[in-house]
Amino acid sequence: MSAEDTVGDAAGAISADRFVEINYDDVIPNNVALGSDKQLQRALEGWRPNYLGWWNGMGPVGFQSSDVYLRTAVGVDPAGWAKFGYVKMPAYRWGILLAPKVEGRTIPFGRHKGEPTWQEVPGEHRALLRRLIVVQGDTEPASVEQQRFLGATAPSLYDMRNLFQVNVEEGRHLWAMVYLLVKYFGKDGREEAQALLERQSGQIDNPRILGAFNERTPDWLSFFMFTFFTDRDGKMQLAALAESGFDPLSRTCRFMLTEEAHHMFVGETGVQRTIEATCAAMVKAGIKDPHDIEAVRKLGVVDLPLLQRKLNFHASVTRDLFGAEISSNAAEAFSAGIKGRFNEANLKGDDHLLQDATYPVTRVVDGKTVVEQEPALRALNARLLDDFIVDCQGGIDRWNKSVEKAGVAFKFVQPHKGFNRRIGEFAGKRISPAGEVLTEEEWKAKSGDWLPNDDDMRFIASLMKPCHEPGKYASWIAPPRVGVNNQPGDFEYVRIA
Ligand code: BYC
Fold first, then answer.
1. pLDDT tens by residue, 277-330
2. What is the rounded distance in angstroms from the CA atom of residue 79 to the CA atom of residue 87?
3. Dihedral, CA atoms, 182, 185, 191, 193, nearest 10 degrees?
4. pTM (2 decimals)?
5. Ligand 1 atom nearest to 209, measured from its CA
6. Other residues' Cβ atoms within 10 Å of the Cβ of residue 183
7. Hey, which of 231, 318, 321 would you mutate to test ligand 1's pocket, going by the most ligand atoms within 8 Å of its Cβ?
C-alpha cells in the first residue's frame, strides 16, 4: 500500500471543509500551498525518499507492517484537529502544518520590538536562526532513534500505540524543521536537511548535537521519564521559538506545541500508572515501608526509591539541554528578536528589552551554593530552566497525590538544580540532590543512592517482558483510566502483523 492510499485509512471520513485546510491530495500533505511553489515541492519530494529510508532503517524496530491506531492531523484549529484510524507506520501522512497566520503580528521583544514580523529570513540573523532550527530539528529524529527498540517490550498494546504515536509525530516535527530549512535557507538549508538524517543518536563519529539525545532509552521507565522531562524541554524551547519574530518559525512551533502536549501526557500518566501499580501491590501485600526494596520487587512492581533515582537522572540530564545559564548566544537570539522567553508576549510589567533588568542565578562560590544577580539578558537560559522546573512540579505533585491516596509514606522531589550537571554553572561540581556541595569522594560514595545503579537497571530489564494481548497489562503498570479516543479497555490498538 502506498503512502497516498493510506489517507483512506487514516483520514477517510475527513469532511470536505477540513481538506480545504490541509491538502491531503499532495504527496506531502500541507497547509502551506506547497503546490504553488514547484521548486520547494521538488526539493521536499526529493528529500522524502531519504526520510523514508531513515525511518525504515533507524525508526521503530519491528511492527512496521502492523496496523496501528494512530491519529493524523486534519486541521490546525484546536477543536478537532485529529482523525483516528489504523495506519501502517511507514505510510503515515507526514505533512507540513503551520498554525494560522496572525494578521498584523509584530515582533514582541528585543531591539526590533514592535516592528512587523519577518516573513523572510532577516539577512543579519541568518546564521543564528539556521543554527537554532538545526538544533531543534536534530532532536526529533534523535528521539525516534533512542526509542526504536521499545516496541518489543511494550507493557500493553495501549502503550505500544502511544509509543508509535509519539514516534510518528517526532518524525513530523522533523518535517516541520526541514520545511523551514529548505524553503528559507537555499543550498545550505538543503544540506542541513540531509545532515539531519545522517547524524545518529549515540554514534561516536557523528552523534546528535545535544547530550541528552545521545543517551540510551533502554526501557519503558526511561521512555516515560523521557517524555515527561525531555519532551517538556521540547515544550519550553518550542514556546520560546513560537515567540520568534521570524513568523514562519513561530507558526510552525505553535502547531508543534499541540502535539508535544500529548507526549508529556504519555510520560506523566506512564509514571503515574507505574506508581499506582506499585502502591496497589504494596497495600495488597501489607508492605508499609516503601524502602523494603526486596519485598516490593518480589511483587513484580517498581519500588518508589528506584523511580526517584530515575527521576533524578532524567531531570538532571534534561536540565543540561537548556545550555549554560549565562549565555551570549541566548542574549543575542533574544536581542535579535529570534527566540523569546516562555510566554514572552504575555509577560506583564516588562519592557521585553531587558537592557537594565537582572535575574538571580544559582552557582557555586567558595564551596557553597549562592544566588547572584546577573544581567537578565545573559541569564535567559537560567530563566527558561527555572520555568521548566516549575512546569515539572505540577506533574510531580500529581504523582505524590497518588502515593498519598494509597496511604504510602513516600514523596517524590526534584533534585537541586546543580545535581548531576555537565553543562553550565554546575559542570564539574558535585552537588547532592539536597543541594550540598560535595567532594569527589563523597559523591562516589553516595551517587549510587541517587542515580539508577547497575542493580536497578538489571531489575528494570527483568520486568521488561512484552504484554501484547488486547486489554492486558504487565504487572508493573496499571491500565489507563480512559482509552485512546474513548476506546474500550480491550481495544486492539496495534494489530500485530
Ligand atoms: N549538549 O551558550 P550555550 C525537543 C552547545 S527538545 C551539547 O551554553 P545556548 C524534543 C550549544 O549548542 C528541545 N552541546 O547555550 C524533546 C553551543 O554550541 P555552538 C530542542 C550543548 O546556545 C524530546 C555551545 O554549547 N530545541 O524538542 O544559549 C523529543 C554553547 O551554548 C548543550 C532546542 O534546544 C548540550 N546539552 O543554548 C523530541 C531549541 N547545550 O552553537 C524533541 C534550539 C549547549 O556554540 N536550541 N550546547 O556550536 C537552542 O535554543 C540552543 O541551541 C540551546 C543551547 C538551548 C540548546
1. 999 999 999 999 999 999 999 999 999 999 999 999 999 999 999 999 999 999
2. 22
3. -40
4. 0.94
5. 7
6. 20
7. 321
